[in-house]
Amino acid sequence: MSEERYDEIQLALQHIEVNWNEMGQRIQSFNSYIEQANTTKEFKKIAGEASDLIGDLDESEKLRTFISMTKIDIELTILEAKNLAVSDLKRSDPYVVFMANKEKYKTKVIENVLDPVWNESFQIKVEVGDKLMLQIMDKDVGKKDDENGVCYWKIPSMYSGQIIYDILDIDKKGFLYIKAVCNNSPLQKRLMPFDYEKITLLEVCIISVNGFYNSLISNTCIKDITKPKVLKHLKYTMELTTSKTKCQRLIKKKTVEGQQYGNYVFFDQRIFVKGTVNDEIKISFLAKEKHQKKFKVITNSSFIIPDFLPNEIMTLPIPLSESGSLQLKITCLESVYTNVYPTVIPTADMVIEKKGNVVMKLTKSNGFGDFLAPYATVQFGPLLITTSPIQHSGEPVIFNESFLALVETGTKAIVRMYNKDMKNPSKEGKKLCEGKFEVPEIKNKPVKVVVRFNSISQLEIEFFLIRTTSSVFDELEKTNRIEKRNQKIESIFNRFDEDKDGYLKVREFRTAIQFVNSTLTRSLSVFLFPCFAVNNQINLTIFKEVTEVLASFNNSHEAITKYIYNFIDQNKIGSITLTQFINFAHQTQIADSDKELTNLFNSFDYDKSKTLSYKEFYRMIQCVVID
């Protein structure tokens, strides 16, 4: 049952007390049904019973009238906007205005910004299902304010105390972040079955980027990149995107005075992103010189969304593809486990028990204060990892650079320290010292390794795991996929069972199986039918079996054709006789008479052997035209 359908049923039953005077029966609240449901199967049964009780009310004007009467009190907070369109000569003075319950609401004006932060809250009464139009306006002194885009928020059904965050796409350009807190609602908290495809909403705070000098050297066309004066004026930004969220860009930043130019930039900015579990957050790090108009990507990274628990917070460094690392703080605002039955939600211990990717972070070194640009290499057999050179003064030398370490516990590593000649950064530096260590066993907490080169020189390294999906989620996803697939197959079967007798005839089957597998040709679908049909018809159980067989072949046309050929070749001699073909083809209805089938057979019997080889049969399947 869809969430929208659920809302309609719940609203109808909460607002309408239907009394059947003739029968003395009364429809109860849908929530009383839900409270009895502990499993997905039970939920479906109970939801179906509730739907039947309502009958056709949900299609009537009466139900829509009742739904529109559902008003809730919410505190709507206009948080901030991202990447607004330029209104007046590279600037904008934005504010937000909207109407709710015939009243007008307006935020303050933020001057000269394209990423304004308002954090203004409004107490409003709204109707569930209504669309709230929010206009982003540009303040113009002395003339009429210009509209700088519009976005819409459909009021969801909310229970008292519920908090919802959302990202709204602005039609002109940019995004608006909002937060809604329900203060009063006639609706009760609802629990839904687990859905592995439920959208997760994350607040991703990009704190800083470290150790990216090597990426600047290899991926930019910046002249005099070795000069501190040039590095000082470089501007940086980041872009984030997912399959569910369009690209968003951070406010551009420069390395502030006193920090390592070309090796460190502090952002401390947040971006909201949506995505499903196992979706990829794609991250790009960009830079440009003072006189350049456009930013250029210098390195990339990504983060796979795990099954975050509601309100879970994770702080971690993410390695960049070239060199450097990105420090992130991720807060889960909407989880795949939000408002699902508590019995399926894993505990905090469960979500971290499964091992993920190992990240190695070189934190700092001591004993290299006399060298202008030290850097380190770590070698695991053929795998060589190199940090960016750090131009520094004093001790310790701070690297804070992370790398993905695709190594096992106990792997031996060699660490070497070098000093880079910054006038010739592409050339290997002068070797200073060398040390060794073994990769430790890494569990749920970071493990620190200290590599000692001599009595005064050492390098500190941390190993930790990047969170991945829990074993609980993996099992739930597997079960949920099967349930959804079965629901889809049953729906398709029922749709094409025209006479509703629980069976598909050949033409019904042909169309239905192509809906399940859109890559299947019409001829293959027709020739599949006799392989499974009983008395020239296929029931739901057999239809599911057909879909499983197709899935086992990875939808390979050649594998499916071979399966059909072997079915006809009952004697397993590697050829099909005319009699075998005609007996089989009768069920396909591809011809009206045996004569037509004989002509078809003979037209592909190239060697006139009165049998069809697999190659000849395969050619027939490809060429035959099915009406």
TrEMBL record:
It comes from the Eukaryota. One of its GO terms (cellular component) is membrane. InterPro entries: C2_dom, C2_domain_sf, EF-hand-dom_pair, EF_Hand_1_Ca_BS, EF_hand_dom. The keyword Glycosyltransferase does not apply. CDD domains: C2, EFh. GO terms for molecular function: calcium ion binding. Residues 49-168 form the C2 domain. Keywords: Calcium, Metal-binding. SMART domains: C2, EFh. Residues 484-519, 592-627 form the EF-hand domain. PANTHER family: C2 DOMAIN-CONTAINING PROTEIN, MULTIPLE C2 AND TRANSMEMBRANE DOMAIN-CONTAINING PROTEIN. This is Calcium-binding protein, putative. It comes from Entamoeba histolytica (strain ATCC 30459 / HM-1:IMSS / ABRM).
